[in-house]
Structures are given as C-alpha cells and as structure tokens.
Write a structure and sequence with these properties.
The complex is a heterodimer of chains A (81) and B (399). By secondary structure, chain A is mainly alpha-helical. Chain A is built from 4 helices and no strands. The chains are: A mainly alpha (81), B alpha/beta (399).
Amino acid sequence: MAEPSIDQIEKVITESLVTFGADPDAISRDAELDALDVDSLDLAELSQIIEENFGVELSSNDVSEIHTVGDAIDIVAERAK
Amino acid sequence: MSEVVVTGVGAVTPLGVGAAKLHERWAAGVCGIENGEGRCDELVVSDHFSVKEARRADRFAQLVLVAAGEALAAAGWDSELPYDATRIGAIIGTGIGGIGTIEANDRTLLEQGPKLVSPLAVPLMMGNAGAAAVSMRHGLKGPSYGVVSACAAGTHAIGSAMRAIQYGDATAVVAGGTEAALTPLSRAAFAAVDALSPSGISRPFDARRDGFVMGEGAGVLVLENGEAARARGARILAIVRGYGATSDAFHITAPPASGEGAAAAISRALEDAELTPDDLVYVNAHGTSTPINDRAETAALKTALGERAKTIPISSTKSAIGHLLGAAGAVEAVATILALRARLLPPTIGLEQPDPELDLDYIPNLARTLDLDEGRRAVAISNSFGFGGHNAVLCLEAT
C-alpha cells in the first residue's frame, strides 16, 4: 500500500467523524474528541476504517493515546510509513 | 396490592406518529396497511434524533424512543421526573430485537469479512436495546430490561411493570413494546412458516382471512403507583386492573383449537382484577387474521366469558395496522385505553364475509359508540398470544 499523504488521512478521519455525528464546523486538528462527542465505540469504528483504508492496525493501547483529531492523524501517518 | 394507573400513552404506528392518530384514524375506518405491510411512513427519523442518536439505535429502539417521548410528555414528565430516578424503571418488550442490524452486519460479514462487522452491532441488535435506550434517554435508574415472548411481548412487559409497581420494586415504570422487522430475512422467515397473508390483506375474523400482515411500530404507557400519582396531582387515564399470563405447552407456532391456554389467561386477568365477564364492555382481540388464531381466540373467549362472550363488542387493531409482533400488545393497550376514554369502539376493518364458525360481535367496519349504563365502568381486556404458546391478557379500566 502506497504511503498516504497527511491530507488523505485527514480527509478519511474527518469524514468518519462527520458520519459518527460530529459537527463538521467543530472539527480541527486541535479539537478534543470528547468535545466532538466521539466515544470508545466511535473510536473502535474509526480503527476499522483506518485499517481498511491505510492498512494500519491500531491496538487498544494506541487508541487510548488518541485525544485530539491531530493525534489520530499523526499516529496513522507515523504507522503508515 | 397497590393500584397501578396509566398517566401517559404514546404510539408510533402505520396510522401515524402519536397515540391520538392511532385511535382517531382507526375509529374512522382508516387502514394503515399499504402493499401488504404496515410501515410507519409518517415517522421522520431526523425530526427526533441527531445523526449520532439515530446511528446508535436500531429502528426498533428509535420507534420506542419516539413513543416513550410522547408518553412521558403526556404524563407531565417532560421537564423533570416526578420521583427519585432509582424508583422509575423501563420494561420494553420485543419479538425479535434489532433484526435490521443483524441482517446488515451479516451481509458485511459475508461480503467483507469479520473485521468490518460494526462495533455498534451488539448494542443495536440486542433485544434489551429498547429498554436501555428509554432508560438512558430519560435517566431512569430503576429496574430496566427487555421482555421477549414473540407477539405477546408488549403485554407481558406491561404486566411485568404492573407487578414491579405492586410489589414495590418501582414507583413508576415506562412500559411498552416495539418492533421493526420489515426486513428481507424476517419477511422470508414469516412467509416460510406460512404465517403471512399471501393476499396482503389483514381481515381478522373474516371467512377469507389468510394470514397476518406484518407491521412495525411501538406503544408505550407510563405506569405509576396510584397513590403516588394522585399525590402529585397526575391526570389518570386508566387503571391497570388485572393481568393474566399462561402458556399452551402445546406447539411452537400453533395454539390448541380449544384456545384453552388463552382462555385461562383471560380468566386469570379477570380474577386478578376481581371482576367478572359481566363487567367487560369491550374486548381488544389478538385477532391476527390467521385462520387458526381467530378460531382459537373465539373459542377461548367463549370458554372464559361464557354467554357474555356473545354480547361483548370485540375488535382487532390488526385490521388497521397489521401485526406489530412484539409491539402489538403495547400498541393495542394504548388503543384500548383511548377507545374506552372516548367511548368509541373502533371496528374490525375488512370484515365483510363472516365466518360461520366465528359468531361473536366483532364490530365489523363501523366504529360503535360505547353507551355505558349508570354505574357501569369502562372495563376491557386486551389479548396477546405469541409463538411458543405464550398468552398474556390485560384488564384495563378507563377513568
């Protein structure tokens, strides 16, 4: 799988969060997932989407380190290298 | 025993969103069945749920959330709960649970593999999801659980709620039933067991009846300890007088022709209410429009009510909305209460060719005014019977 660009990762994650019900206007790199009302079930689903799109498998430990949208983008970019 | 009263009702049915529409449209002879199914087309999900709320609830949970919202508002609970939250329960029946979710995830499993099965699959498909959703939405912290007894589930849920209040486990319970099983697997499965009407017409007690028409929907009642409800000045719509539940122990999909288990449930409900057949002014029949149910139910009514069976007006809500499976009993309890309160008994729609073997007064096609003699109370029974041989009957009195 070719290494995805940050923009590609950001697009997939943003679209996923919107699908989960987050307010599109509130989504930014610094936005806290709690503030977007993203919970553990959403993160489990996001992990599936990330693996499906980028071949990156996130463990529950990885997921527990994700607090902001930027955290999610960065960990995927790092692991997809 | 504590008296258990009804202080609010709500319904989402193929006749519309709202309990009043169920009563008014059914009484006017409107049938909500189209193309052989009773869909809740009037419900616009986005009017009631955010994107997140909608995707966190299977349709069967969405339907009961809408009905519960109406019932709680009617009970005057919309701004704040009238009792300590730990004293209020939620008991919601369903026949199948989140079958739409099960089918969708099964497709994912077969087409894309196990890794893409949704993390939401379990919380959406579980049969207790309706009770959980109502508890969470309204902050109800008393006993909450699902009740599963096929097409008797809604009635069992109300009966169980009544007992929880009588025993003192709760001061109030939001009770009801819900079903959203208009799905490919469910249709095929009910057709395979030869239960569905090939003609797509629900005409209970008619000689041409050929099976039930499946519908979706939900009904909810707010039940309260009578003393507590009166103390808070609640408007009391009805009293749950009695409850009877029995089993046929006979066959997994068919009742005995004698309807003896159903008859015993009717008798038990009347005993529980300390009433006699003479006290009844209406019967809301299970009346599925299957050849066997309507015959066995008629036999059961004759056994349980004796000569009185021939003079009590009887009608089937399923003639107007189809068979709502695990929601049926709850929706029909709502319909019964509103009919008694309006003193207007809705008809069995489509009953044009009487079956010579079925010789009771099924209120064919035209609603009937309920004239009560001085001193006579507005008391009815509502029958529900489910695959597995489950029989449940409520005795309800409108105030």
